[in-house]
Records
---
Amino acid sequence: MRIGLCARLMLASVVAAAPWIVQAADKGKAAGPASAAQLERGRYLVDIGGCNDCHTPGYMQNAGKIPEAQWLTGDKLGWRGPWGTTYAVNLRTYMQDLTEAQWLKTAKTLQTRPPMPWFAVQKMSTADLRAIYALIRHLGPGGQAAPAYVPPDKEPPPPFVQFPAPPK
């Protein structure tokens, strides 16, 4: 069977472009299954980064003795200050709608109300952010949504921690 010059050039173009076509198709996909090492790194970072302190109900009060199945489900404990009252979001449900690429972009540009240390999240390495993402996705959805933000001029329902006004 003879293939014409035009057909050979088209075939050569498709073969040459294949790596870029595959790469572009993969960009929108979620990350594949995490390795045991990546999950362990995610556990370590969530632990030492203090993520559970606010994002896992009862974690601080129980000296961290909360089963992993209950980690990062958000909390109804409010954090009230001059900014209003904020609540630690349920990271397990939040991450379910994000691809890894979306999480990385969000984490690197994150700016939230206190007491969330968003500036520390921005400084994390891409590898560390990927490990945290892998762990949270591995845990799967769980828990309920945290209460919504309450503006400073509104009284939040208890319980909440009252921060003092900053010194003048």
---
Amino acid sequence: MKHTLVARVLDEPGVLNRVASLFRRRAFNIDSLTVGHSEASGVSRMTIVVDTRRTPAALVAENLRKLVPVLDVEDVTHRPTVSRDLALVRVRCAPGERSQMADLVAIFRGKIVDVAPESVIVEVTGDEGKVDGLVDLLRERGILEMVRTGKVALVRGSKADVKTRAADMEERTNGGGAQPNAGKGETDNGADLLR
């Protein structure tokens, strides 16, 4: 089964490397990992989809929490979320086939974002199933190149939840309280994670 974890991390050099190194050391299988700025200054948001057939999601989250730059980890798998995946796909397309291609892409609410003499670039956003469906149809036409972002997700809920979380992040990033991971034995090389 795949689980979706959302981690809020300090926006500083080396954080992604530390998270990836943790996954490598522990042999956790990452299905997708996306990172971007969040609503809080100095805090980035990671959405991590992990395969939990071999390793429980709780263990993955627990290990992530031990990393000093990680402020918060939440398993949103069983919570109501809005999730999206973005794909850009370069597909073979002769000039006479462009209207057919545009019609096909429109069924998936995608769009053609670039046109070349013998190809087009298609953009599609949606849940993984929707993106996979269009990609499968485009394969028949000849995919030349493709990139996907991986899953991004936000938990559905009230603005009060967001304000509370933002206040917590503000306090943690501005040193207004104890470091959330203080006293957990974190070392610079992360060796304590193997305990």
---
Amino acid sequence: MRRVSKSVAIVGAVCAWLTSGAAGPASAQDVPAEYQAVLKTLGKSGDYKEAVLKVNIPRTDVRVTISGRPAPTPFGFGGWIALTKGDGGHDVMMGDLVLTEDEVNPVMSAVLNSGLDVTALHNHFFFESPRMFYMHVHGHGKAADLARMAKPAVDLIGKVAQEHQSQVTGGGANVTAGPMDTALIAKTAGYSGEQNGAVYKITVGRADLKLKEMGAVINSRMGLNTWAAFYGSDANAQIAGDVAMLAHEVTSVLKALRSNGLKIVAIHHHMTATEPDVYFLHYWGTGPSAKLATGFRAALNELGKKKGTREHSTH
């Protein structure tokens, strides 16, 4: 009987540990009630960390290839909307919607007609099929109102008739999932990441920029970050990512990436009316995973340096 009692006690302790949330990531109960309502309105899942609600809008419905090889959704096709509290109890909303070419303008009209802003539209990749575009959206207001305003656009994603087809031919990436030493990648890059299926992703914030909007801290989860996603094997992988930069950092980051054989696919902004201005650079490349991590580290090494004394005038 003592043995049975001991087993019961152990089971009870384990159950208490599991229900306390100590066994895993934040559960739905950890999301504030008003943000749970946002998730319900949008019909999406999400999480709440660092005072930010992140709503997931992944494009699992689209089978994307890059240079003729399948690319998993976490490699760079996971859209999102994020909300955080600003002054007066109002929220600041930012988001990045991943869209096909035929979806861009219907979704844009839905965003604008609801009273939200579109702050950027651009590519993140070369050589992908179908072509994918990224629309950055923005708004201020009560969380419930922002959810209601975003819903028509979110509901259109994946529902617009695809009238055009694009197909890329050529290229020899030939990347497939295999063993990848993520510990070595993390050591080389200087930052650890997270595994999502076959994709290993490192995200690095720009806390040094101290960016705020309407009293809200614009942190990594709101989109102010540099990241790298790795997919493939140690011998043959691909990397895709985004670098958040100040104006004086752009050229040095470009040089660092190009000198390591990584391709630049876009340079643009994501946000408007922020101070300082932040520029974002997207890159892609293939090769041994350790070499790709070295290229990413080279770009990171150019961030956060003080601006040089020599000034360049603009005309």
---
Amino acid sequence: MQKSFIIVLVTGLVVAMFAVLNAKPVEVNMIFKTFVMSQAIVILVSATLGALAMFLMNIVQVMKLKKQVKQLSKKLVNAGINTDDVTGSKSKNKAKKEQKQPVVEPVEKPMAEQLEKTVTKKTEDNVFNSTNSASGSLTDALNNVKEDEKLQ
């Protein structure tokens, strides 16, 4: 994208410099009428109309190609062929979904058992503490933290 923009910009500057250097009044003969105007204006208008014509032809070509791709994709789907298998690439949406899924590594069995024991112990402690103390004093909370540190 940037290369094409730079090429267009440089070409436009060359055409503009050429037009300014050739700014003499000239007679322009349209089929029905004759005008006298600066040659620079004639050059700039001609270059602009040519660029516009090329742009419009490019848009038509891109639309035709998109239509053709859709038709061929439908034929592949009707034939039972996945378009990802043919092109070797994945659609942007599928690639984004696959990137967002977290990678979960299997947890070793002893580690899982220890984690389960710790969660069970903390749950039992919380239930016990909430039934024995109405508000859970600060000292009880500190004792629970110390016990948790000993377990780990």
